[in-house]
């Protein structure tokens, strides 16, 4: 399995996806069930291709909220000033993107 597929799988499982026993009919790869659809982690079959733009955006929004939480936790426990600056920069980018995603979802 590709590294990207694995990362995607881990991300989906964290968001509540369930690992399926049956392999992908197309490539034999590992499949997960997420929001009522099967997604192959290897070839991406039935993955992003059938997602509507608003689904992709709301997934992105929940991912960003997770990232903001974990970056903000790290910032809270970080004593190195340089790393604090990096984390603040990162948080700023996440928040900006979150704001844009929110606007895009509203239409
Ligand atoms: Zn597949």
- Low-pLDDT residue intervals, each spanning 5 or more residues: none
Strand order across the largest sheet: 1-2-3
- Percent range for helical residues? 55-70%
Shape: globular
In this entry the ligands are: zinc ion
Order of secondary-structure elements: HEEEHH
Number of strands: 3
Question: What's the number of structural domains?
Answer: 2
How large is the radius of gyration?
A: 17 Å
Q: Helix- and strand-based class? A: mainly alpha
Overall pLDDT, averaged?
Answer: 86
Largest sheet: 3 strands, antiparallel
Quick take:
With 107 residues, the protein is mainly alpha-helical. 59% of the residues lie in helices and 9% in strands. The radius of gyration is 17 Å and the shape is globular.
Could you characterize what this model shows?
With 107 residues, the protein is mostly helical. It folds into 2 domains: 3-50, no CATH class; 53-106. Helix content is 59%, strand content 9%. It has 3 helices and 3 strands, in the order αβββαα. The protein has helices at 3-14, 53-77, 81-106; strands spanning 18-19, 31-34, 37-40. A hairpin with a 2-residue loop joins strand 2 and strand 3 (37-40). Helix 2 (53-77) packs antiparallel against helix 3 (81-106). The radius of gyration is 17 Å and the shape is globular. The structure holds zinc ion (ZN). Zinc ion binds next to loops.
